[in-house]
């Protein structure tokens, strides 16, 4: 499977397992799972056929481990805008986590903190390199440090997704550290 096809299938899976399952007549259970055969049939019926082998390739080679397969079911690991409960237990975060963004968002972030926007949770990275890559998707990246140790002590709840992304409902601005010059 070539790289272009891999990316196309991955984006298709993300769109329909995270944001728009109903667009292709797909139903996710409360945990975000759907049967793989149902997904493949729905995609085919809506003009985007792919094989189980292609799906397995995308799941296995995705560097961000965006998808989880359990038996005959698949789901997105995090990032949903549709209502799902991933069933992740609360977890104690490391003292600091990181969030990648771009400069044009900093004024709003200073005023409102980090909000989930069209998702259910704010996504945080365990290292600066990952946060830099995330921020770079929207332009020149700016990496914010999040005092998650203090947040946790103050009662904020964190979850760790299956693919290593830290999730929390919001990050008030008082817990954010902005890089010099920003």
UniProtKB/TrEMBL annotation:
Gene Ontology terms: biological process: tRNA splicing, via endonucleolytic cleavage and ligation
UniProt keyword terms in alphabetical order: NAD, Transferase
Classification via Gene3D superfamilies: 3.20.170.30, RNA 2'-phosphotransferase, Tpt1/KptA family, N-terminal domain
Protein biosynthesis recorded as keyword: no
SUPFAM superfamilies: ADP-ribosylation
UniProt-listed InterPro entries: Ptrans_KptA/Tpt1 (IPR002745), RNA_2'-PTrans_C (IPR042081), RNA_2'-PTrans_KptA (IPR022928), RNA_2'-PTrans_N (IPR042080)
Summary of the function given for this chain in its UniProt record: Removes the 2'-phosphate from RNA via an intermediate in which the phosphate is ADP-ribosylated by NAD followed by a presumed transesterification to release the RNA and generate ADP-ribose 1''-2''-cyclic phosphate (APPR>P). May function as an ADP-ribosylase.
Descriptive protein name: Probable RNA 2'-phosphotransferase
Gene that produces this protein: kptA
């Amino acid at each position: 499977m070539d790289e272009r096809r891999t990316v196309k299938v991955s984006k298709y899976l993300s769109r329909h397992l995270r944001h728009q399952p109903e667009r292709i007549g797909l139903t996710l259970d409360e945990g975000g799972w759907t049967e793989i055969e149902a997904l493949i049939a729905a995609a085919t019926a809506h003009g985007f056929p792919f094989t189980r082998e292609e799906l397995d390739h995308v799941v296995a080679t995705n560097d961000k481990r965006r998808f989880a397969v359990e038996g005959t079911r698949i789901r997105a690991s995090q990032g949903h805008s549709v209502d799902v409960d991933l069933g992740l237990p609360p977890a104690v975060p490391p003292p600091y986590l990181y969030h990648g963004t771009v400069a044009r968002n900093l004024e709003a972030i200073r005023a409102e903190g980090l909000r989930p926007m069209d998702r259910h949770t704010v996504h945080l990275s365990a290292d600066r390199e990952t946060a830099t890559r995330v921020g770079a998707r929207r332009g020149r990246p700016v990496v914010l440090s999040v005092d998650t140790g203090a947040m946790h002590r103050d009662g904020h709840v964190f979850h760790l997704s299956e693919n290593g992304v830290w999730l929390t409902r919001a990050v008030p601005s008082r817990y954010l550290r902005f890089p010099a010059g920003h």
